[in-house]
Amino acid sequence: QKLWSNTPLQTRVAALLKFNKLLSEESDELAALLSMEMGKPKKHAGGEIAATQTRIKFLADNVEQACAPITMTDTAGFTERIEYEPLGVVANISAWNFPYFVSSNVFAAALLTGNSVVFKPSEYTPLTGAAIARLLHQAGVPENAFQLVQ
Length: 150
Prior knowledge:
Blueprint: H1 2-5, H2 9-25, H3 27-38, H4 42-66, E1 70-75, E2 78-82, E3 89-93, H5 99-112, E4 116-120, H6 126-138, E5 146-148
């Protein structure tokens, strides 16, 4: 966890944006897999993947501002600040009905802010969960920063 939390923010952002690119490149195959696993029409599965990409892009675009230190008071040698630090390890137990979108709200925000993730996909979408892990690792997120538990 320390390795990932010490990774520069721009490197973490780049990894999540690369994950987005990989989602786009494999969207047809990923949508077909999701449809096969849980019965969602392929068109809806593709829509979920596209919505996931939009959410991740929003988080990546806003993480620096959201985590910037805030000075509350700075007078007469007294400074009061709010600073943000990674929590450590975040558990992400995913839903079966929107496995990309719901889980990305947790794992993308956690990874961008320097946290490691233990990811447990639904028992109804284990192959989709494995695809998420594979693509995150391929995008540059270390295996010890995003761990899949089936």
